[in-house]
Specification:
It is built from 18 helices and 24 strands. By secondary structure, it is an alpha/beta fold. It starts with a helix and ends with a helix. Helix 2 packs across helix 3, helix 5 crosses helix 6 and helix 6 crosses helix 7. The chain has an eight-stranded mixed beta sheet with strand order 6-7-8-5-9-10-4-11. The chain has a seven-stranded mixed beta sheet with strand order 15-14-16-19-18-17-20. It has a three-stranded antiparallel beta sheet with strand order 1-12-13. It is about 35% helix and about 20% strand.
């Protein structure tokens, strides 16, 4: 049975969203080009014949190509697809509507020299060809252009006779041009130079020093997600050019391409290139009974797939492999639809660091603190604390280095009575000692009905050690004390904070997953729930990890980072569910013979005399 059989009963027609049309001012000549294959080929033939008959017309046509990228593509470029039937494997490159949009975005981005542009694509959408054509166009018509193409492996750079290589495509495109458009050039392995205008294009494989020390007008990283050393290449190339095209379908989240495209706090602009934008693949689109977009092509493609990860990464643009997930995609997505909503307030807490207390709350659309709970005096949010309740404040500290791949420090606040999240604080810039003051201030701000603070729990490993020391220095004492996991009943110890071990972490996240599955807690944070999707059971270590912790740069702060929101949420449930017993430690016994012991003996003797006097 294939997916189309399962979903054939419940189908709702769905119209794919249409991307903006191309700019007719920018591409002023493109409008005259026929788009049907037969008419387009005849147009090309007549145009070239006229160029040979009239030299001035030839000059005009070359100027039109220089001015109009889409005219050049649709009149002089061909593409090769060996999967097609014999006689149709070489076809004129006639752009689809979505490809017009992509070419325009690339052109605008290149002109602005705006850094990186990510092309987040499903497979087989012509994007590798598009980027090579864009590079070739600059090589032909821009003086002293310097382009660099980076492939995921050496075999795909330049191998004569191999259509899968980058330079085979460049050679193929040049061979398809009429001779009067081909400049004198020098061609060597992985290199081509335009001797007319001094422009060059080079290609190399994705080794960790790729492009290092170089300077380029444009860099194209082809299939970046599949590069073995994507983080090192990303770091090495970012200062080499002011314009990079990051082109890839997804391949898990343990790569730099995912970091650029995940939409968290990244500043990388991207173009989402979904399968339904293709007119053939998107024909007959419908929503199945679960609300998923499908089409007859999609149903066929799914029937050819042997693994869910294939569809997730190569078609759905979903970088997270469903088979390894600990929480489960369907469960999390249904939970998001049912329980997630926008925060009521968002802003920043101004904290008096001298006494670790909140001065005021300032509403701000980009503030680090989000509130899903109500303020006690909503008419004056700046000076109003939250409505009193029985609150748990759970913290996952980080080093606070602020780097792009560094972990977040997270504070999650839950109401123990309703089991609902009421606040979330996220920052990459607060070191543990400063975070501790902030967390204590939040605990004191979220008061109970008696005016006392909320209860604080944090992960004590790594940066949690200095965080805990800083908490103690504030004089705050209402926090979770570690349990002795090796003793029946797990009595509380005298050490504050929750200590993470592989076994303790598995138990913590298992209880959290079950609480979400059974809807025992109300997790309102969409970011936290989406982060749950990246927690996997890693077969090699047989441990639960966040996929991003497996890369060399993201793991610089420790191997278990990037599950920050989830750990904080799970710690809150750990306390609320009673799994984490909260008790003050017993007063330690004074050593025999010490001053404290001597004072205790005198106190006992005095109490005994008082009893005898009655």
């Amino acid at each position: 049975m294939v997916a189309s059989d399962v979903y054939s009963v419940d189908r709702t027609p769905w119209e794919p969203p249409r991307l903006p049309d191309y700019d007719p001012v920018r591409f002023e000549h493109y409008g005259c080009v026929p788009k049907r294959v037969r008419e387009n080929l005849l147009f090309r033939q007549r145009l070239v014949e006229q160029c040979y008959e009239d030299k001035s017309y030839q000059v005009d046509v070359e100027q039109m190509c220089r001015e109009d990228l889409l005219f050049f593509v649709n009149v002089f470029c061909f593409t090769y697809n060996p999967r097609m039937q014999a006689g149709r494997r070489e076809l004129p490159f006639i752009t689809y509507h979505f490809q017009d949009h992509v070419f325009q975005r690339m052109e605008e981005h290149y002109e602005a020299q705006s850094g990186s542009l990510a092309l987040d694509k499903c497979r087989d959408m012509g994007m590798s060809w598009a980027c090579i054509i864009f590079t070739l166009h600059k090589w032909l018509y821009e003086d002293m252009f310097s382009g660099l193409l980076i492939s995921r492996k050496e075999d795909l750079v330049d191998s004569p006779g191999n259509p899968g290589t980058l330079f085979w495509k460049i050679d193929y495109l040049i061979d398809g041009l009429p001779p009067f458009m081909v400049p004198p050039m020098h061609r060597s392995s992985g290199h081509i130079e335009n001797l007319r205008n001094g422009s060059v294009v080079d290609a190399e494989s994705s080794n960790q020093s790729a492009s290092a020390g170089d300077r380029r007008s444009l860099i194209v990283l082809d299939e970046m997600a599949r590069m073995d050393k994507s983080f090192a290449i990303d770091s090495a190339s970012v200062d080499v050019s002011d314009c990079r095209f990051l082109v890839s379908s997804h391949y898990g989240i343990n790569n730099a391409f995912f970091e650029h495209t995940r939409g968290d706090d990244t500043a990388t602009p991207k173009i989402d290139i979904d399968w339904w934008l293709h007119p053939t693949k998107g024909e007959g689109c419908y929503l199945d009974g679960t609300g998923k977009v499908r089409s007859p092509w999609y149903d066929w493609r799914e029937s050819q797939s042997s693994h869910p990860a294939d569809m997730a990464e190569n078609v759905d643009r979903d970088p997270i492999s469903t088979d390894q997930q600990f929480y489960g995609t369907d469960m999390i997505r249904k939970y998001i639809e049912k329980h997630c909503f926008q925060p009521i307030h968002q802003g920043r807490l101004l904290v008096n660091t001298a006494d670790a207390k909140v001065d005021k709350f300032v509403e701000n659309e980009v503030g680090e603190l989000k509130l899903w709970g109500f303020l006690d005096h909503p008419e004056d949010p700046e000076h109003s604390p939250p409505v009193p309740g029985d609150y748990v404040i759970a913290v996952d500290p980080s080093m606070g280095t602020g780097g792009k791949y560094s972990a977040n420090a997270v504070i999650a606040v839950f109401d123990s009575d309703t089991k609902q999240r009421v606040a979330e604080f996220v920052s990459k810039h607060l070191p543990p000692t400063e975070l501790a003051v902030y967390a204590v201030a939040i605990a004191r701000w979220f008061k109970n009905v008696n005016g006392g603070p909320g209860l604080l729990i944090w992960e004590a490993n790594g940066p949690g050690a200095s965080f805990g020391t800083a908490v103690l220095k504030t004089g705050f004492r209402k926090f979770y004390y570690r349990q002795n996991m090796d003793v029946i009943g797990r009595p509380s110890t005298e050490r504050p904070g929750w200590w993470s071990t592989p076994a303790a972490k598995t138990e913590l996240l298992t209880h959290h997953r079950d609480a979400l599955k059974d809807e025992l807690m109300v997790e309102c944070s969409r970011d936290c729930l989406q982060e749950c999707l990246a927690i996997i059971f890693e077969a090699k270590s047989r441990q639960l990890v966040h996929q991003a912790s497996l890369n060399t740069l993201s793991s610089s702060e420790g191997g278990d980072n990037h599950a920050d929101r989830v750990i904080a949420s799970a710690l809150a449930w750990f306390v609320m569910s009673g799994k984490g017993q909260v008790a003050l430690p017993k007063k330690p016994k004074a050593p025999i013979g010490s001053v404290a012991w001597d004072m205790e003996q005198r106190a006992k003797e005095l109490n005994g005399r008082k009893k005898l006097s009655y």
